[in-house]
Amino acid sequence: MIGLRPIEKKMLRGLNVMKSSERVTPAMVVRIGIASIFMVAIIGCTFGPTIAQTDKRVEMAFVDDNEILRMLSSEDRETSFEAAREIFNRGEKMIPLLAKNKGNHAPYAWGSLGNPRSGSITLAPSNNPEWDEGRIITVEAASIYLICAIYRQDFEFATSAYLKSKDDEVIFNRYNTTERLAEAWDSVEKWIEMMNSEGLTSLREKNIRPLFNTKFYF
């Protein structure tokens, strides 16, 4: 009964109460049948989604690095999110590839990154590029976030993928402006040079983060 919940163990014990000498009655057959149906339903609900998610991750594991990077720009919400998770899981080797997304202003289809329990509000794209500028999470902003997540070894290390600072006076979530992203990339590119020179582990030990040369954080 390893891995079963108490109610599942109880049902299995219930199916085991008959001794070989007991006479099987129609009522007992009905009882056993109902218990079996509930058992299948409970186990199916408990393990079904986990198996499906595992299958999805197995599929992603066979996709090469460049294709995973391309999938981050997918217009399909689920594909873009699964790509982000897979990029994070692959770790350090994906950082130089993520840097190739500099200037990619396409919306990140999943729409947000960060801790889903934070209550942070991320604005969805509209049909007005002027209004969207700086307010939506783009593929390049998502890429900077993922570089920081790999450094931090935590996919949900922040409340969102908005670049923030302590002296912000931001209106309508215009956190990721072209100017802010340019400053962030300038720091990230210097940081990648340091990573290539001394290694990611060394930078973690020295507490040198990708946005070290800016006032920004996620």
Total beta strand runs: 0
Span from first to last CA?
45 Å
Task: Tell me the major beta sheet.
Answer: none
Helix content, binned percent = 40-55%
Provide a count of the helices: 9
Question: What is the radius of gyration computed over CA atoms, rounded to a whole number of angstroms?
Answer: 25 Å
Uncertain runs are: 15-22, 35-51
Describe this structure as you would to a colleague:
The structure is a single chain. The chain is an all-alpha fold and 218 residues long. 53% of the residues lie in helices and 0% in strands. Helix 1 (6-15) crosses helix 2 (26-61) and helix 4 (77-90) runs parallel beside helix 7 (139-152). The longest helix has 36 residues, at 26-61. The chain is globular and about 65 Å long. The two termini are 45 Å apart. The model is unreliable at 15-22 and 35-51 (pLDDT under 50).
